[in-house]
Protein backbone atom coordinates (compact mmCIF):
# COMPACT_ATOMS: atom_id res chain seq x y z
CA UNK A 1 0.00 0.00 0.00
CA UNK A 2 1.29 3.42 -0.92
CA UNK A 3 2.04 5.89 1.79
CA UNK A 4 0.54 9.34 1.92
CA UNK A 5 3.98 10.77 1.08
CA UNK A 6 4.30 8.60 -2.05
CA UNK A 7 0.81 9.59 -3.20
CA UNK A 8 1.52 13.29 -2.68
CA UNK A 9 4.89 13.00 -4.43
CA UNK A 10 3.22 11.37 -7.44
CA UNK A 11 0.58 14.10 -7.52
CA UNK A 12 3.22 16.84 -7.40
CA UNK A 13 5.25 15.16 -10.15
CA UNK A 14 2.13 14.93 -12.33
CA UNK A 15 1.35 18.61 -11.72
CA UNK A 16 4.96 19.57 -12.43
CA UNK A 17 4.90 17.70 -15.75
CA UNK A 18 1.55 19.25 -16.68
CA UNK A 19 2.59 22.83 -15.91
CA UNK A 20 6.11 22.62 -17.32
CA UNK A 21 5.62 20.42 -20.38
CA UNK A 22 1.97 20.16 -21.42
CA UNK A 23 0.74 23.74 -21.02
CA UNK A 24 3.80 25.40 -22.60
CA UNK A 25 3.61 22.99 -25.55
CA UNK A 26 0.03 24.09 -26.17
CA UNK A 27 0.95 27.75 -25.87
CA UNK A 28 3.94 27.41 -28.20
CA UNK A 29 1.98 26.66 -31.35
CA UNK A 30 3.48 28.99 -33.92
CA UNK A 31 2.20 30.15 -37.26
CA UNK A 32 4.13 31.13 -40.35
CA UNK A 33 2.99 34.36 -41.97
CA UNK A 34 2.24 35.44 -45.49
CA UNK A 35 -0.11 37.51 -47.60
CA UNK A 36 -3.19 36.87 -49.68
CA UNK A 37 -5.50 38.90 -51.87
CA UNK A 38 -9.24 38.73 -52.33
CA UNK A 39 -11.16 40.44 -55.12
CA UNK A 40 -14.63 41.67 -54.20
CA UNK A 41 -17.61 41.28 -56.54
CA UNK A 42 -17.13 44.99 -57.36
CA UNK A 43 -13.54 44.25 -58.49
CA UNK A 44 -11.76 45.82 -55.50
CA UNK A 45 -8.57 44.05 -54.40
CA UNK A 46 -8.23 43.56 -50.64
CA UNK A 47 -4.92 42.40 -49.18
CA UNK A 48 -4.50 40.64 -45.85
CA UNK A 49 -1.39 39.69 -43.89
CA UNK A 50 -2.25 36.28 -42.52
CA UNK A 51 -1.01 33.54 -40.31
CA UNK A 52 -1.28 30.12 -41.97
CA UNK A 53 -3.19 27.47 -39.99
CA UNK A 54 -2.12 24.35 -41.88
CA UNK A 55 -1.81 21.59 -39.27
CA UNK A 56 -4.55 20.11 -37.09
CA UNK A 57 -2.91 21.69 -34.03
CA UNK A 58 -2.75 25.13 -35.66
CA UNK A 59 -6.36 24.90 -36.84
CA UNK A 60 -7.49 23.84 -33.36
CA UNK A 61 -5.70 26.83 -31.78
CA UNK A 62 -6.73 29.41 -34.38
CA UNK A 63 -7.17 32.90 -32.98
CA UNK A 64 -8.07 31.73 -29.47
CA UNK A 65 -7.14 34.14 -26.71
CA UNK A 66 -6.27 36.94 -29.15
CA UNK A 67 -7.48 40.29 -27.86
CA UNK A 68 -6.82 42.39 -30.95
CA UNK A 69 -6.48 41.98 -34.69
CA UNK A 70 -5.33 44.63 -37.15
CA UNK A 71 -7.63 45.63 -40.01
CA UNK A 72 -5.38 43.94 -42.58
CA UNK A 73 -4.62 40.86 -40.47
CA UNK A 74 -6.21 37.45 -40.31
CA UNK A 75 -5.70 33.72 -40.23
CA UNK A 76 -6.21 31.40 -43.16
CA UNK A 77 -7.19 27.83 -42.34
CA UNK A 78 -6.28 25.36 -45.09
CA UNK A 79 -8.08 22.08 -44.51
CA UNK A 80 -6.04 20.28 -47.17
CA UNK A 81 -9.19 19.01 -48.88
CA UNK A 82 -12.64 20.22 -49.82
CA UNK A 83 -15.21 19.36 -47.17
CA UNK A 84 -17.96 20.74 -44.96
CA UNK A 85 -16.35 22.87 -42.25
CA UNK A 86 -17.60 23.82 -38.81
CA UNK A 87 -15.94 26.30 -36.48
CA UNK A 88 -16.70 27.97 -33.16
CA UNK A 89 -15.58 30.89 -31.03
CA UNK A 90 -14.77 29.15 -27.72
CA UNK A 91 -11.89 30.92 -25.95
CA UNK A 92 -11.89 33.71 -28.55
CA UNK A 93 -12.51 37.18 -27.05
CA UNK A 94 -12.73 38.94 -30.44
CA UNK A 95 -15.69 39.07 -32.76
CA UNK A 96 -14.56 37.63 -36.09
CA UNK A 97 -15.84 37.42 -39.65
CA UNK A 98 -15.41 33.90 -41.02
CA UNK A 99 -14.98 33.82 -44.79
CA UNK A 100 -15.52 30.33 -46.24
CA UNK A 101 -13.77 29.72 -49.57
CA UNK A 102 -13.95 26.73 -51.94
CA UNK A 103 -11.01 25.08 -53.73
CA UNK A 104 -11.42 27.38 -56.77
CA UNK A 105 -11.10 30.50 -54.59
CA UNK A 106 -14.80 31.37 -54.62
CA UNK A 107 -16.16 32.85 -51.38
CA UNK A 108 -19.25 30.76 -50.68
CA UNK A 109 -20.26 32.23 -47.31
CA UNK A 110 -19.34 35.03 -44.93
CA UNK A 111 -20.37 34.58 -41.30
CA UNK A 112 -20.21 38.14 -40.01
CA UNK A 113 -19.50 39.36 -36.48
CA UNK A 114 -19.41 36.01 -34.73
CA UNK A 115 -20.06 36.09 -30.99
CA UNK A 116 -16.97 36.06 -28.74
CA UNK A 117 -16.61 32.99 -26.49
CA UNK A 118 -19.61 31.31 -28.13
CA UNK A 119 -19.70 27.54 -28.51
CA UNK A 120 -22.35 27.82 -31.22
CA UNK A 121 -21.30 26.05 -34.40
CA UNK A 122 -20.58 28.24 -37.44
CA UNK A 123 -20.79 26.14 -40.59
CA UNK A 124 -19.51 26.72 -44.10
CA UNK A 125 -22.89 25.81 -45.64
CA UNK A 126 -21.12 24.22 -48.62
CA UNK A 127 -17.93 22.18 -48.98
CA UNK A 128 -14.86 24.44 -48.77
CA UNK A 129 -11.08 24.16 -48.72
CA UNK A 130 -10.29 27.36 -46.78
CA UNK A 131 -11.65 29.59 -44.03
CA UNK A 132 -10.31 33.10 -43.48
CA UNK A 133 -10.86 34.71 -40.10
CA UNK A 134 -10.64 38.51 -39.97
CA UNK A 135 -11.73 41.19 -37.51
CA UNK A 136 -15.50 41.20 -36.97
CA UNK A 137 -17.16 43.73 -39.28
CA UNK A 138 -14.18 44.00 -41.61
CA UNK A 139 -15.79 41.96 -44.42
CA UNK A 140 -18.66 44.47 -44.68
CA UNK A 141 -16.23 47.42 -44.50
CA UNK A 142 -14.31 46.20 -47.57
CA UNK A 143 -17.28 44.73 -49.46
CA UNK A 144 -16.33 41.08 -49.00
CA UNK A 145 -19.41 38.96 -49.74
CA UNK A 146 -20.30 35.62 -51.30
CA UNK A 147 -19.07 35.65 -54.88
CA UNK A 148 -15.77 37.38 -54.05
CA UNK A 149 -12.62 35.50 -55.05
CA UNK A 150 -9.42 34.51 -53.31
CA UNK A 151 -6.48 34.98 -55.68
CA UNK A 152 -4.87 31.57 -56.21
CA UNK A 153 -2.39 30.00 -56.01
CA UNK A 154 -1.48 30.79 -52.42
CA UNK A 155 2.14 31.05 -51.37
CA UNK A 156 1.77 28.53 -48.53
CA UNK A 157 4.89 27.56 -46.58
CA UNK A 158 6.19 24.49 -48.45
CA UNK A 159 7.38 22.55 -45.41
CA UNK A 160 4.00 22.57 -43.66
CA UNK A 161 1.53 22.59 -46.54
CA UNK A 162 -0.89 19.64 -46.36
UniProtKB/TrEMBL annotation:
It comes from the Bacteria. Pfam families: DUF192 (PF02643). InterPro entries: DUF192, Saro_0823-like_sf. This is DUF192 domain-containing protein.
Amino acid sequence: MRSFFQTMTSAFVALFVFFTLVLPAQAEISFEKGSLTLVTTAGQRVDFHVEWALTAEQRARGLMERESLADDAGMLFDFGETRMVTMWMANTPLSLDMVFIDETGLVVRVAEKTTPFSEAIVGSGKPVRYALEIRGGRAAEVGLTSGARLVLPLALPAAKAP
